[in-house]
Amino acid sequence: MIKLYGGVFSRAAIVKWYLEELKIPYEFVLVDLQSGINLQSDYLAIHPFGKVPAIADGDFILWESGAILIYLAQKYDRMLDTVEKQAIVNQWILFGNSTLGDGLFSPQNSTKETPRLLGKLDSIFASQSYLTGDRLTAADIAVGAVLNYVIMMIKDFDYSPYPNVSAYIQRLRDRPAFQSSMTLK
User: Fold this and answer.
1) Positive or negative torsion for Cα 81, 82, 86, 88
2) Which CATH fold topology does 83-181 show?
């Protein structure tokens, strides 16, 4: 069984969301970052920087949410049956974790990048439900998480100029796995 190491309000929720979408059994191990347990040798053996998330899949240990999503997609998502399909999903995961996140959250970039990035995403969602077509993949987990974090962290952020992005976010939020993983409780 996979062990998912995470903290409260951490990017471990992204990994949890994908594990639930894939219906993979896992054990969530709460790493209390406030207590400093993440800086003790036992946990540093799992994640050398003392951060979350990390997973242990048997003896295999991996950290960084994007790397974990890529690993889970390649190992467990049977619809990604070619290297090319996997590469497209990986491309979107990296986009979500770097280009999109930096473009929306970085003060020096957001004014210019937000309309460009969201405008392009809006045009993509005008003709398809998810990033790679009509089926949710790890690509949507990565990009959808960033789009949802914007709403959580920038209270006055307005997606209304991008109605297809808004509809996409709502599709993601309506998913039971999203609701059990990404919503604040």
Assistant:
1) negative
2) Glutathione S-transferase Yfyf (Class Pi); Chain A, domain 2 (1.20.1050)
pTM of the model: 0.94
Residues whose CB falls within 8 Å of the CB of residue 184, separated by 6 or more in sequence, listed in order? 9, 152
DSSP 114: H
- Exposure string of 83-96, with b = 16+ CB inside 10 Å and e = fewer, is eeebebbbebbbbb
Q: Where are the domains of the chain?
A: 2-76, 83-181
Q: Could you read off the pLDDT of 130-145 as tens digits, one per residue?
A: 999 999 999 999 999 9
Alpha carbon distance 33, 38 (integer Å): 6
The percentage of the chain sitting over the pLDDT mark of 90, rounded to a whole number, equals 89
In this model, does residue 185 exceed pLDDT 70? no
CATH 3.40.30.10 fits 2-76, yes or no: yes
